Amino acid sequence: MLQPSLQDSVTSTQILSTFWILLVLFVAPLLSRLTRGLVPEVVLLLVLGVVLGPSLSSLATVEYGVELVSELGLGLLFLLAGYELEPKLLFSRTGRSAMVVWVVCAGMGFALAWFALPVRDATAAVAVAIALSSTALGTLLPILKDRGLLGTPLGRAVLAHGASGELLPVLAMVVLLSSRKPAASVLLLLVYLATIAAVAIVPRHTLPRARWLARLLQERSHGTGQLVLRAVMLLLIGFMALAETFELDVVLGAFAAGAVLRLLSGEGRYDTHLEDKLETLAYGFFVPFFFVVSGMEISLGAVVEQPQFLLAAVVLIAAVRGVPVWLAERFTDTGSGLEQPRERAQLAMFAATGLPMIVAVTQVAVSTELMSDATASILVAAGATTVLIFPVLTHVLQREAPSDRRQQGERPG
Question: Which residues contact residue 42 at a Cβ distance below 8 angstroms, ignoring those fewer than 6 apart?
Fold first, then answer.
């Protein structure tokens, strides 16, 4: 047990660190507004996190309760990504094409890491490949919603590539970056998924019969009760804890929790405002908290000393993830319905926007000594740069869309 003086010091450190992080959470959207949205809030959260961290001011520290809150933010981010995952879309022609494209992207990333980068360990090359080929679906969802793109062919294509770019990297990370042999990891993963399926199937069949419980969930989903929201958090923490028990990454547990939640909740079966509440809880506090803490862990010195590596990493992400997506849309029938070159370019840039998965995979790689802190910092900074640049470019292309349509309308039939 902590001595009283040490306990007071720990508590003081927690409170001060949380205060500075919350100040950043409040200031970041205001600064983003001043830039008219050209600088995404998530980028400002990372940058201001660097300011708070040991690279500059050391005003906040990633210790004690701060790390736990950040982990919950990571979990909620991937829960929402799993919740948005539509099985029908994932296994449609567009979804199957997106999965094939991701495999190609990962293969390219591995080859580049092995032959073009100073990586001489196959597992380390796998870590780099996963980072380069991921897509920040959780980060893109608010952007797609704000622009009204979710229900459009472009939005659905982004969802398909985003789902593949988060789900498949998570599975690859669990199987290939573990200390166990791949065969043992696959077996453990299958057992874990079977357990998850059992957890999902039992409530789905029993809840409709236990009418008193369904009625209680509906009645206590508002006001001070919020029973459904509490159940969601129990599901999230339970699956993350189960993943830890199986010695798998907690990101997999969070993603699985989101997919199971979508299966159980239906069309607002127990709480018609559940999605709004989840977004309020996640994006109001926990998810931005995670991004600030991620910024605090970036080594600014490593990025400043090697800016050419940062630029090269951004180019590699665009080449490894964006180019194959564009080529697939241009030369094959993916079923997406994207016929305009502008839309294909937008899709490629959205797909190449990566950050949360880069943060997750670099954390695992650093903890297992597959990657240095400097390399991880550069990759995370490159991911932040893609979030800063690529959505802005898609917005520029989107603003040009009306003139494109007018030109098409003026063409003779």
Answer: 139, 288, 291, 355, 384, 387
Within 8 A by CB and 6+ apart from 26, the residues are none
- Assess contact for 353 and 107: CB atoms under 8 A: no
Nearest residue to 256 via CA among 100, 80, 124: 80
Q: Model confidence over 288-330: pLDDT tens digits?
A: 999 999 889 888 888 888 888 899 999 999 999 999 999 999 9
* Helix H or strand E segment including 94: helix 93-115
Longest dimension (CA), the chain: 83
Nearest CA-CA partner of 386 in 131, 76, 129, 151: 131
Which residues lie below 8 Å from residue 318, measured CB to CB, with a gap of 6+? 349, 352, 386, 390
**What is the phi/psi pair of residue 62, to 5°?**
-95, 75
Domain housing 252: 41-399
Structure confidence at residue 275 (pLDDT): 83
Question: How does 165-203 read in b/e, with b if 16+ C-beta sit within 10 Å?
Answer: bbbbbbbbbbbbbbeeeeeebbebbeebeeebeebbeeb
Q: What is the pLDDT of residues 209-263, one digit of tens each?
A: 666 666 776 666 777 778 888 888 999 999 999 998 888 888 889 989 998 888 8
**Per the domain annotation, does 17 fall within a domain?**
no
Helix (H) or strand (E) holding 33: helix 4-34
CATH number of domain containing 197: 1.20.1530.20
Helix ranges restricted to H, 297-322: 300-305, 307-317
Question: Do residues 362 and 371 touch, judged by C-beta distance below 8 A?
Answer: yes
Residue 248 lies in a domain: yes
Residue 371 to residue 16: CA distance in whole angstroms: 31
DSSP letter assigned to residue 395: H
Q: What is the pTM of this model?
A: 0.82
Residues of the chain with pLDDT under 70: 1-10, 118-120, 204-205, 207-214, 217-220, 266-271, 399-413
